[in-house]
Specification:
The strands form two sheets. A five-stranded parallel sheet has the order 2-7-1-8-9, sandwiched between helices. A four-stranded mixed sheet has the order 4-3-6-5. The chain has a domain of 139 residues: P-loop containing nucleotide triphosphate hydrolases (Rossmann fold, 3-Layer(aba) Sandwich), CATH 3.40.50.300. It starts with 18 loop residues before the first strand and ends in a 10-residue tail after the last helix. The protein contains seven helices and nine strands. The chain is 38% helix and 19% strand. By secondary structure, the chain is α/β, with parallel strands linked by helices. The longest helix is centred in the last third of the chain and has 16 residues. The model has no long low-confidence stretch (mean pLDDT 90).
């Protein structure tokens, strides 16, 4: 391996920016983890996902998601403005390309929060990204999470649990797994921080090219 690819910190330069993908089944707490990381001022560019679903109470456009119409989202698809997109439970979600490229070009780490299918797409495009699978402690705990947030009907909850069972099988394609246990959010966030710190110390860092 060429010495030009060794960790630039050895030469007193900033570390190579990371592209970190956090994924996992619906209801596992990806949004809660992201919010806590923001509260703790993690030095990341948090990419805001675009979605066609209606805004929920307490959510902020441009912060939680870019809320756009179905027509606008489909235009973004046609114009190839999205790094990855999918139709999830009848609603579009996608990652704007411009945010990722601009942040990494400026030397900033980028964090993506996406569903499992989306993570697979990113892995094909950027295999050198850091892939972290957020998992529940148990199926029953996941059921409680989905029930407590009260955004889905009982039928929808069962459908999401069935999907979660399939998504859990994809953990083998990730680099790391972090268990997000109820009432132990900071523990999961701390593990993610430790993974990122370790990745920064690689002698030959990951080289992400999009």
């Amino acid at each position: 391996m060429s010495p030009l690819l060794r960790n630039p910190q050895l030469d007193g330069k900033p570390p190579v920016p990371l592209l970190v993908v956090i994924s996992g089944p619906s209801g596992v707490g990806k949004d809660s983890v992201l919010m806590r990381m923001r509260e703790l001022a993690f030095p990341f560019h948090f990419v805001v996902t675009a979605t066609s679903r209606p805004i929920r109470p307490g959510e902020i456009d441009g912060y939680d998601y870019h809320f756009v119409s179905v027509e606008r989202f489909e235009q973004m698809i046609r114009d190839d403005e999205l790094l990855e997109w999918a139709k999830v439970y009848g609603q579009y979600k996608g990652i704007p390309k411009s945010e990722v490229r601009q942040a990494m070009a400026s030397g900033r780490d980028v964090l993506l929060r996406i569903n499992v299918d989306g993570a697979a797409t990113i892995k094909r495009l950027a295999p050198e990204a850091v892939f972290i699978f957020l998992a529940p402690a148990s199926t029953e705990e996941l059921r409680r999470r989905l029930t407590v947030r009260r955004t889905e009907s009982p039928e929808e909850i069962e459908r999401r649990l069935a999907m979660a069972s399939q998504e859990m099988e994809q953990v083998q394609h990730f680099d790391y797994v972090v268990i997000n246990r109820e009432d132990r959010l900071d523990e999961a966030v701390g593990q993610i921080r430790a993974i990122i710190i370790a990745e920064k110390q690689r002698v030959f860092p990951r080289q992400v090219r999009l």
